[in-house]
């Protein structure tokens, strides 16, 4: 079986960048959610919270995948 260590490193690095983007998007959505709540737009704020929960769940899965790839 060929050595795929360079490929694994590149894949893990790309996933890490995507994970950083997930965190940045979650932070931005959180700021908007706070503003929406403060301005009486609770329904939209609630939807934003659901979006953040999805980002968090997916970030955890991406983190696990990165760790598996890096440990190959």
Fraction of residues in H or I helices: over 70%
* Span between termini: 13 Å
Tell the overall outline.
elongated
- The count of β-strands is 0
Any idea what the radius of gyration is? 17 Å
| Strand-residue proportion | under 5%
**What is the domain total for the residues?**
1
* Order of secondary-structure elements: HH
Largest beta-sheet details = none
Unreliable runs: none
Give the averaged pLDDT, no decimals: 92
Global structural class:
mainly alpha
How many H/I helices?
2
Which features would summarize this protein structure in a list?
single chain, 72 residues, mainly alpha, 2 helices, 88% helix, 0% strand
Describe the structure.
The protein is mainly alpha-helical. The chain has one domain. It is built from two helices and no strands. The protein has helices spanning 5-38, 42-70. Helix 1 (5-38) packs antiparallel against helix 2. The longest helix is centred in the first third of the chain and has 34 residues, at 5-38. The chain is elongated, with a radius of gyration of 17 Å. It starts with a helix and ends with a helix.
In short:
The protein has 72 residues and is an all-alpha fold.
Topology:
Layout: H1 5-38, H2 42-70
């Amino acid at each position: 079986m060929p050595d795929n260590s360079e490929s694994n490193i590149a894949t893990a690095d790309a996933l890490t960048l995507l994970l950083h983007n997930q965190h940045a998007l979650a932070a931005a959505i959180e700021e908007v959610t706070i503003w929406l709540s403060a301005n009486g737009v609770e329904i939209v704020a609630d939807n934003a919270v659901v979006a953040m929960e999805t980002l968090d769940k997916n970030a955890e899965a991406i983190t696990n995948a990165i760790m598996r790839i890096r440990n190959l």
